[in-house]
Amino acid sequence: MSARRGALPLGLAVLALTACTPDPQPAPPPPAPPTSTVLRFGNPPGTAFGAEVTLPAGYRLTVSTPRPIPTAELPADARRPGKRAVVFTVTVVNTSPAPQRFPDPTFSGSFAAHDSAEVVSATGRPTEELIKLLDEDKPIPAGGTVRVDQWLLLPDRPGVLQLKGLTRAAADSVTYEGEV
Question: How many Å apart are CA 3 and CA 9, to the nearest integer?
């Protein structure tokens, strides 16, 4: 038997085996992300904390992700069992070509814990920095930036916080939302 003659049957056998072997199964799709227990307040949901929003009156506004405040740093009258405090920084940039008054965004909060369908109002407190800024009533120069902290008391459980902000201009409202 020549080498050529043996190669042909072997080649046919490999070809036949390949033709009869089913295609390898495609990889299974990646598992779907777990369904979220996040409750959304609005439709559409609020802007994510940290995102910048442009307001019609000539400002850009950003609300930072809320950060916890140690209980020891709270005023005595704000320390409550079952509550925690979070602080968020509000950054306002004057995008108009002229100085403008601080828009005084006032935020009201709603909070829904993951383990409850109850929605509670979050109690806010202005910081001394914000009170001073409002008392001085100095305009923000064109292109100028102002940053102030505000804080809220929330139930001591993980959940979703929604902050609705209204400014001096009724048309300028914004909603931020996210996990806390």
Answer: 11
Percent of the chain with pLDDT over 70: 71
Query: What's the Rg (C-alpha) of the chain?
Result: 29
Q: Rounded CA gap, 108 and 176, in Å?
A: 11
Token pair for 131: 């009170």
Distance, in Å, from the CA atom of 93 to the CA atom of 88, rounded to the nearest integer, reads 16
DSSP 8-state code for residue 39:
P
pLDDT at 101 over 70: yes
Give the span between the Cα atoms of 55 and 52, in whole angstroms: 10
pLDDT band at residue 91 using 50, 70 and 90 as cut-offs: very high
Q: Which amino acid is at 118?
A: E
Name, in order, each residue with C-beta under 8 angstroms of 38's C-beta and a sequence gap of 6 or more. 114, 160, 179
If one counts every other C-beta atom within 10 angstroms of the C-beta of residue 21, the result is 8
Answer yes or no: are the C-beta atoms of 35 and 55 closer than 8 Å: no
pLDDT at position 83 over 60: yes
Helix H or strand E segment including 8: helix 3-20
DSSP characters over 111-166: EEETT-S-EEEEEEEE-HHHHHHHHH-PEEPTT-EEEEEEEEEEESS-EEEEEEEE
Least confident span in 13-22, 52-61, 130-139: 13-22
Q: What is the pTM of this model?
A: 0.69
